[in-house]
């Protein structure tokens, strides 16, 4: 059995492999071995509802009808959102939607594609 590296964030020894990533079950930090030495602690991995990793500039599709706060309109299921920008915070996707304007979305309500 090969020795897996300790978590770079909390130094836990209980890390495990998930595909090409290493995951810490204690602090939920994820990192890859290649980028382990290149400030990967500053970079947050954001995933969609299906577990696909999202990047700046991706196109995503809304998977649930979403009420728009401060408005009586609804963002319908299947709405395509192009050229997303990932940001820190509870709503981790910043985007511009045709007919709605600038908006912030949660990654758990979109899928890549």
UniProtKB/TrEMBL annotation:
Residues 4-32 form the Protein YjdM N-terminal domain. Residues 46-112 form the Protein YjdM C-terminal domain. It holds the Pfam family Zn_Ribbon_YjdM. It comes from the Bacteria. NCBIfam families: phnA. Belongs to the YjdM family. This is Protein YjdM.
């Amino acid at each position: 059995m090969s020795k897996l590296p300790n978590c770079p964030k909390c130094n836990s020894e209980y890390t495990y492999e998930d595909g090409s990533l290493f995951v810490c079950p204690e602090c939920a930090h994820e990192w890859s071995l290649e980028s382990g030495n290149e400030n990967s602690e500053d970079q947050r991995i954001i995933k969609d509802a299906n577990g696909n990793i999202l990047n700046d500039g991706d196109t995503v599709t809304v998977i649930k009808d979403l009420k728009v706060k401060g408005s009586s309109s609804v963002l319908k299921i299947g709405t395509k959102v192009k050229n997303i920008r990932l940001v820190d915070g509870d709503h981790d996707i910043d985007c511009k939607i045709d007919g709605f304007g600038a908006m912030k979305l949660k990654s758990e309500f979109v899928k890549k594609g």
